[in-house]
Design goal:
4 strands, Ubiquitin-like (UB roll), binds zinc ion, 24% helix, alpha+beta
Length: 70
């Protein structure tokens, strides 16, 4: 599990934290359990495409169920 860190300016290992994310869709605020990646060197939040995709899938599920969207 490595990704590019802007602060370290290189490829670093990262850790994943599960957190509650909020996203607004069509005037509703959707809460869902998402993931974020953090650089193990400096703690900077990293953009990881596969994690971003996972979050989108989870958000989509939540939006369809509408349990988390109010
Ligand atoms: Zn870093």
């Amino acid at each position: 599990m490595i990704a590019f860190c802007e602060k370290c300016h290189g490829m670093v290992t990262y850790s994943i934290k599960t957190i509650i994310l909020k996203k607004e869709i069509k005037e509703k605020t959707c809460k869902f359990q998402g993931m974020k990646a953090y650089c193990t060197e400096c703690g900077n939040e990293l953009f990881v495409a596969s994690i971003h995709d996972q979050n989108l899938i989870r958000l989509e599920k939540e939006y369809k169920n509408s349990n988390g969207c109010k």
